[in-house]
Specification:
With about 130 residues, the protein is of the alpha+beta class. Helices cover about 25% and strands about 35% of the residues. The radius of gyration is 15 Å and the shape is globular.
Length: about 130
């Protein structure tokens, strides 16, 4: 699903987008909670490519090895450094889902004048069944 969404957005923003998507998965059958990663990617396109009139850059890194998930998304932002407001960025719900399902996850969100970045690490073997 993530691959398809990225391909669709590449078509929509082809003229002003530099996209890097690196994916390394050792077990394609490894399951995880649905739609955990998609909001982070949607956020990058919405607040990166969607708000840029010039060139936007989005870097997505996904690595899954022996149940260990490493995921990062970095996108350029235009204008002044945004005041971090997780509600405005639509990340509150996903943060809550991570807390409930993967309580041992590590999520780091950072922004400056030019870039917004999220880093997520979690062990997919350690989850709470709801």
């Amino acid at each position: 699903m993530l691959d398809n969404y990225i391909e669709l957005e590449k078509i929509r923003h082809s003229s002003n987008l530099k996209l890097t998507f690196v994916k390394s998965i050792d077990n394609e059958l490894q399951q995880m909670a649905p739609l955990i990663l998609l909001p982070f990617v949607e956020n990058a396109f919405k607040h990166g490519a969607g708000e840029s009139r010039f060139g936007a850059e989005i870097d997505i890194f996904l690595k899954l090895e022996q149940g260990q998930l490493q995921f990062s998304v970095t996108n350029t932002i235009s204008g002044e450094k945004p005041v971090f407001d997780s509600e405005r960025l639509g990340l509150n719900n996903i943060k809550r889902q991570l807390e409930l399902i993967y309580p041992e996850h590590h999520l780091h969100i950072d922004s400056n004048e030019t870039h917004f970045n999220i880093n997520l690490k979690t062990n997919l073997y350690k989850y709470v069944k709801l």
